Amino acid sequence: MTKPSRISGPAEPLRTPPAIIAAIILVSAAASALICWLVYFHAPTDVSGTQLHFLPAVNAVLNAFAAVALLFGLYYITHDAIRQHRASMFTAFFFSSIFLVSYLTNFTLHGETKFDRFNPWWPVYWPILASHIVLSIFALPMILITFFFALTGRFPAHRKLAKWTFPVWLYVSVTGVIVYLMQAACR
Predict the structure, then answer these.
(1) Number of domains within the chain
(2) DSSP designation for 180
(3) Cystine design at 149: which of 12, 31, 75, 157 (Cβ 3.0–4.6 Å)?
(4) DSSP assignment letter at 4
(5) Residue burial 44-65, b: 16+ Cβ < 10 Å; e: rest
(6) Residues 44, 48, 50, 54: is their CA dihedral positive or negative?
(7) 3-state secondary structure labels for all residues of 22-86
(8) Residue 151 and residue 144 in contact, taking contact as beta carbons nearer than 8 Å
(9) pTM
(10) Residue 11 lies inside a defined structural domain of this protein
(11) Looking at the domain assignment, is residue 161 inside a domain?
C-alpha cells in the first residue's frame, strides 16, 4: 500500500458520495426553476423600469469579468501555476455568483427583455440566446461539481469534468455579453 503524498493527495482515488452530487443537481434545478418562474410566470414589480434600470449593463460587465477570469485560469493551469489558477477560478465564480443575484433581481423587477422578432438581427440573436439559456442550465451544476471536486482534493475527477465545464462556462459568460449588446443596440 502506498503512502499519501502531501502534494498529490491520497494514493487511492476518493469516492464521491452520490448524495453530494444529487444535492448539487437538486439546488441547480431549483435555481433554474426559479429563473423559469421569474421569466414566464412572475409579474414584474417595476414595469416602468425606473428602479435599478442599470442592472442589465452590470450583468454584462459581470459576465465579461467572469470570462476574463476564466481565460486567466486557463492560462495559469496550462503553465502549472496552481495557486494563480485557483485564484482566477474563485474570481470567475465570484463574478458569476454576483451576476446570478443581479440577474434574478433584474428579472424580479423588470421581467423579460423583449427583442423585436421583425428585427433583421433576430435570426442571429435567437440562436445565440437559445444556446445561452440551454447551456446556462447545465453550467451551474457543472461548475458546482467541478468546484466540489477541486475543493475536496478529487483532482483526477476535477480535471476530467473541468474539460467540459470550462468551455460551457466561458460560452455562457461571453454569450451573456453578446445578448446584452444586441438587446441594447436594438432598443
Answers:
(1) 1
(2) H
(3) 157
(4) P
(5) eeeeeeeeeeebbebbbebbbb
(6) positive
(7) HHHHHHHHHHHHHHHHHHHCCCCCCCCCCCCCCHHHHHHHHHHHHHHHHHHHHHHHHCCCHHHHH
(8) no
(9) 0.84
(10) no
(11) yes
157: left (phi over 0), alpha (psi -120 to 50) or beta: alpha
The range of the structural domain enclosing residue 82 comes to: 62-185
Identify whether 51 is part of a domain.
no
- Average pLDDT over the chain reads 89
Q: What is the pLDDT of residues 136-168, one digit of tens each?
A: 999 999 999 999 999 999 999 999 999 999 999
Residues in the chain: 187
How many CA atoms, within 13 angstroms, populate the side-chain half-sphere of residue 76? 15
Question: Taking the CB of residue 180, how many other CB atoms lie within 10 A of it?
Answer: 19
**Residue 3 clears pLDDT 50, i.e. is over it:** no
Please determine, for residue 6, whether its predicted confidence score (pLDDT) is greater than 50.
no
Asked if residue 88 belongs to a domain, the reply is: yes
pLDDT digits (tens, 9 = 90+) for 51-106: 788 899 999 999 999 999 999 999 999 999 999 999 999 999 999 999 999 998 88
Instruction: Return the number of other C-beta atoms located less than 10 Å from residue 169's C-beta.
Output: 27
